[in-house]
TrEMBL record:
Residues 22-122 form the Phytocyanin domain. Residues 1-21 form the signal peptide. Keywords: Glycoprotein, Metal-binding, Signal. This is Phytocyanin domain-containing protein. The keyword Metal-binding applies. GO terms for cellular component: plasma membrane. One of its GO terms (molecular function) is metal ion binding. PROSITE patterns: PHYTOCYANIN (PS51485). SUPFAM superfamilies: Cupredoxins. It comes from the Eukaryota. InterPro entries: Cupredoxin (IPR008972), Phytocyanin-like (IPR039391), Phytocyanin_dom (IPR003245).
């Protein structure tokens, strides 16, 4: 009985861990790394957080991926690359917070729209709101938690979920 409980907990934590780190295929699901995709629209739908990865999938004969500085990005200039990717299936880990800039290294493609700017945020910052009912008055308290360990992040997610359950129960009771 005890071992079965342990297995269930392990599965739940593994699923949560998968949900915390995401792989973002550039342009997907409607496009890819090509001349047609609107990348500013694509990034606007996604929240990039540390631990995620970018995946560039494209024809290596047609395109490339060049990570550049903001200056290179703004001037469509890949002549001073930070990193150059050429395989057609390139994975870029997003390890730290900040903004990163990618363009296509093929002549004129960047000008034609093959440029993407990705803003990576910390996933460890969470705002937790705790509410308490006193009679028919609800008192809420917000607290922002900062941690670096992934395991702590998992624990905090669990706390948030439990908090939601408590709030739902409160609404039902009152
Ligand atoms: Cu290209």
């Amino acid at each position: 009985m005890a071992s079965r409980a342990l297995i269930l907990i392990t599965v739940a934590m593994t699923m949560l861990g998968t949900a915390l780190a995401a792989s973002h295929t550039v342009g997907a699901p409607d496009g890819s790394w090509d001349l047609q995709t609107n990348y500013s629209q694509w990034v606007s739908r996604i929240r990039f957080t540390t631990g995620d990865e970018l995946r560039f999938q494209y024809s290596a004969a047609m395109h490339s991926v060049v990570e550049v500085s903001k200056t290179g990005y703004d001037s469509y200039n890949g002549s001073s690359p930070i990193t150059t990717f050429l395989t057609g299936n390139d994975v870029v880990p997003l390890a730290t917070i900040g903004t990163r800039y990618f363009i296509c290294g093929v002549s004129r493609h960047c000008d034609a729209g093959m440029k993407v700017e990705v803003n990576i945020k910390s996933k460890e910052v969470r705002t937790v709101q705790r509410c308490r009912w006193t009679g028919n008055q609800r008192r809420c308290q917000s607290e922002t938690a900062l941690s670096s360990a992934v395991s702590t992040g998992v624990d905090q997610s669990t706390v948030v979920r439990l908090g939601l359950v408590v709030v739902a129960a409160g609404v039902t009771l009152f």
